[in-house]
Design goal:
The chain is built from seven helices and nine strands, in the order H-E-E-H-E-E-E-H-H-E-H-E-E-H-E-H. It is α+β, with helices and mostly antiparallel strands and about 260 residues long. It folds into two domains: about 100 residues, PAS domain (Beta-Lactamase, 2-Layer Sandwich); about 140 residues, Alpha-Beta Plaits.
Length: about 260
Amino acid sequence: MPQLPSADPELILNVLDQAPLGVVLVRARRILWLNERLAETLRVAPDALAGKQREELPAGLASLLDEQAEELTLTLADGARRHLRRRRVILPAWEAEVYYFDDITDLRALEAERERLQILVDTLDNRDGETGLKNRNAILLALENQISRSRRYGNPFSVIRLRLVPPAGLAEPGQALGEISREFNSQLRWADDIGRLDAETLLLILPETTQRDAEDLTVKLGHERVALASRAEGWFIDFAVTDWRQGDDARKLLDRVCASDK
């Protein structure tokens, strides 16, 4: 092992105090010493934890000496939370062990913010990536808007629940689903709406359409179009139809049209 020019303990401790990570020296499960960097992170005096065993540490810091955890979340005296990544090294010649701590609190905060922004982006994005149709949020918003119009003016409308299940073993069902979905979309009127509710389910909203007319459309879509779609062979394709009725909200209408799936 390389030798220091001087074995001055004060020099060594000063070097460790200025290290860019927290350091704790432990013997017999008792803290012998911790450096200033970790004390600052934990917002305690450097000697406040010296001599303490895990059971004697403040409740929020008890996991500091957990022998197994590689990442810790500590609660400080003022209620603040710190996230630390830890490495434990055993020093058998000195019957001691040393713990090294990286403060990753800012990193975890950035990750949480990234997740929040991703959720926001997903909410604002109204297109399904595989089919190019409206995604669940967008088609449900369109349904709510149509219900509001029908309540206000008494206009009829119907919905079609379309379930598309790919054949077993299909290598790229997403691509095929996109082609089939576009085939359906091409047959709709400009006022109609279509979107993806989940992996296998599309929802069609048909303003000014009675249930009988919607049922006729399913026959057209099912027999004339889906059978001709280049990727539809082997797919299980199932329709269900209902119309909007007085007292319906979006949940009640969807429950009714999706009842056959249960």
